[in-house]
Amino acid sequence: MKPIFADNAAIDRAAALLSQGKLVAFPTETVYGLGADAANPQAVMQIFNVKGRPTAHPLIVHIGNIEQLKFLAQKIPDSAKKLASTFWPGPLTLILAKKSDVPSEVTGGQNTIAIRMPDHPVALALLNKFDGAIAAPSANIFSRISPTQASHVEEELGDNVDMILDGGACRIGVESTIIDLTGPVPKLLRPGHITVAEIEAVLETELMIISTPNPKDTKTTENRAPGMMSSHYAPTTPTALCEHDKLPAILNNLRSQNKRVGLLSYQFNPPENRLMHMLCMPEQAESYAQILYTCLRELDSRELDIILIEETPDTEAWRAINDRIKKATAALTDR
Q1: pTM recorded for the entire structure
Q2: Which of 189, 225, 232, 272 has the fewest CB atoms within 10 Å, i.e. the most exposed one?
Q3: CATH number of the domain where residue 268 is located
């Protein structure tokens, strides 16, 4: 399926397709989403089929205005109202108790629902034209690198999508911050562009930071949420996270084995190597996040033996990036 420039006519057509139970990929400020009518269980199940996503994994529901919250959430605590009024539209997802008529297919069988209002003109125009909620995870194969350009969706999902709206490259480049407001203490389930400090300032209370559940721990009682798997956002090429000081020895060892290596370099500048393809990354967190997935896709397309990612700063500004890198490299790290 070729992407279509997201003008008014294309958005009208996309809204009509959603009403017919079809799938539409569309841009948000974070990544491209694979959307279906959130009120149509059959349409929602197509998302799982196309992505190869386990049905127990809940989807984020996108809305076009705050008023739609009352149709989806059973309770809207003051904390949710404060965060929505401050950060919506924007890259913040709130987990709330769901209304009984919300299809269980959307929520992975849970009694909670993940909701956000995206900050992208195409996404908002589509939501307002459709005049309903759209369930939309990232528009890619499950657990693989999220798409930040329409061409990424085309490459990965092809004709399994009924329409791809092209709204250009995503401005932020990593998925939304997820906050669980269903308990007495607000919890950070997934870090994103909106930081812990910013959320705590609005709520005037500390967040509980929930680490990624251990996949071997069958006793966990935490709500499942998008992006909480230990391995996610991953290239098909084996990918490893490397400490700065250890990179020279690792690269020399791989070179001696004639391994073809891709490197996302934060500060390290190795000598030229015909077997190595290096991409120099920005030293500012926002700029790094914006191109992270595009760069990983670039390296993943080069038929390399391994991709190395140089470690980035362990600070709040880099929390979301480090979360995505850790999960992208988890499969190799855990061996």
Answers
A1: 0.95
A2: 272
A3: 3.40.50.11030
